[in-house]
Amino acid sequence: MTNLSWLTYLMIILASYRLTHLIVFDKITEFIRKPFTKQEKTMDTAGHVGQKRVPSSTFGYMLQCYWCAGVWCAILIGICYLVWPSYAVPVIFILSIAGAQAILETFVGVGTKVIDVLAAMKHKKS
Q1: Does the pLDDT value for residue 58 go beyond 70?
Q2: In the chain, how many H helices and how many E strands?
Q3: Which residues contact 91 (CB under 8 A, 6 or more apart)?
Q4: How far is it, in rounded angstroms, from Cα 87 to Cα 73?
Q5: Fewer CB atoms < 10 Å away: N or C end of the chain?
Q6: CA distances (Å), 71 to each of 10, 53, 109, in order?
Q7: Which residues have CB under 8 Å from 67's CB, separation 6+?
Q8: Tens-digit pLDDT profile for residues 40-50
Q9: Cα-flanking dihedrals φ and ψ of residue 57, to 5°?
Q10: Residues 96-115: pLDDT tens digits?
Q11: Kind and range of the H or E element at 3?
Q12: What is the mean pLDDT of the chain?
């Protein structure tokens, strides 16, 4: 572990980020979260009634908490890298690319929305 390069460390960080996001937010892994959540009615300040899924157990909370899931994902990826590096490295490589892409997409998406808002404001003035 003492000869861990900065690039490998960065890849592990990005892979952990992407795996955490995959578990906590992505639609494709909803089937993992669903058994540990329940539907709950909500009401906003305007009186509109809605529904949302909330954790039904501590494990459900840990699956929906980005900080909690992030710790467990980091532990999983770190142990896999240390114990089975030949299997972990390809997975870490793919997840790190996806993680970096997700971060870039966030910045590009925000930038695009800002440009749209500025264009709409300019169009309103004319």
Answers
A1: yes
A2: 5, 2
A3: 15, 80
A4: 16
A5: C
A6: 16, 22, 27
A7: none
A8: 888 888 888 88
A9: -155, 175
A10: 999 999 999 888 877 777 77
A11: none
A12: 89
